[in-house]
Amino acid sequence: MTLDASTAIALTGAGLRFGPAAAPVMALSDLTLTLAERRIGIVGRNGSGKSSLLRLMAGLVAPTSGTVRVAGLDPARDRKAMLAELGILFQNPDHQILFPTVGEELAFGLRQMGRSEAEAKAAVRALLAAEGRSHWETAATHTLSGGQRHYLCLLAILLMAPRTILLDEPFAGLDLPTQVRLSRRLAALPQRLITITHDPAAVAACDRVIWLEAGRVRADGPATATLSAFTAEMARLGEQDADTALPR
Ligand SMILES: Nc1ncnc2c1ncn2[C@@H]1O[C@H](COP(=O)(O)OP(=O)(O)OP(=O)(O)O)[C@@H](O)[C@H]1O
Ligand SMILES: [Mg+2]
To answer: What domains sit in the chain, N to C, each tagged with a CATH number?
Structure first.
């Protein structure tokens, strides 16, 4: 799998505004970034624009200013090409799962990519067998636990083998053994991974970490540099909150 600059995600002066022009909410402002590294982390406080950035990169929303390109293509327009370029693991698997059975859910992406029903079915069977989960094929998706549904969503992405996988809080709500298994699985992937998280430890091994604040880049660089500045600032803000909450 090639992950050179030609496959990068490039934002140029990208902004995302919600609400009317008279009273705008700027979720993202003037972002210029080229994301080419194999492991990229994105951190930031609640409401700092992380999920908005993911939605922008995935083409689920178009920027209200500037441009977004994925491997040179506009992700909001070229939906078909994006199937091979980008996979998204949403924080909540219930926003992702569409079908009543695991087999149908897994086959859907491949059918979208133009594979025949027989090809898709064979690929689904092979993957489930490799995962030791052949019995899942006919299982009803709603009978899986939250962690299992999360895993199903990851399997669906892996089947489509996109070049880049966007992960929005991939570990939230998972028990510790499942987190360990998932992080081992993710670490072994050849793909580019862009991970959004509140947990600095989850992105400590990344090639690059970006800290978003109020829709802008506050820091961008090696994981150690960005994360030490980020954790120091979060600790400082936490102290402030604790002080103001104390009764006098
Ligand atoms: N559909 C929307 N309509 C209006 N404002 C929105 C919408 N989506 C996001 N926003 C605003 O954009 C800003 C960034 O939101 P976003 O969801 O990207 O934050 P986040 O960093 O993912 O936060 P969290 O850590 O809580 O998931 C927030 O101020 C939010 O209120
Ligand atoms: Mg979010």
So the answer is: 5-100+140-242 (3.40.50.300)
